[in-house]
Amino acid sequence: MEATSTCTAPIYDLLITERGDAIANAAHAAEQTRLKAAETLGFRLSDNGNNDAA
After folding, report:
1. Which one of 30, 42, 50, 51 is separated from 17 by 20 to 30 angstroms, measured CA to CA?
2. How far apart are CA 46 and CA 49, in angstroms?
3. First vs last Cα of the chain: how many Å apart?
4. Higher confidence at residue 29 or residue 48?
5. What is the SS3 assignment for the chain?
């Protein structure tokens, strides 16, 4: 998610420079959490939709 790429906002750019991009950091942390939860709980998508338990 790149909110700063669509418009110029000097105050926001200054805050990002000083404090970091909290929105991008939160999005990254959420994605990492989602991946870890899926791995831990065993959520997997099958390649072709066949779930054969042979």
Report:
1. 30
2. 5
3. 42
4. 29
5. CCHHHCCCCHHHHHHHHHHCCHHHHHHHHHHHHHHHHHHHHCCCCCCCCCCCCC
Q: Which two tokens stand for residue 13?
A: 């750019």
Q: Which amino acid is at 10?
A: P
CA dist., res. 21 & res. 3, Å (int)? 10
Return the pLDDT at 33: 96
CA 28, 4, 12: angle at the middle one, nearest 5? 100
Is the per-residue pLDDT at 30 higher than 70?
Answer: yes
Taking CA atoms, 14 is separated from 2, 22, 24, in Å, by 15, 13, 15
Q: CA 12, CA 18: separation in Å to the nearest integer?
A: 10
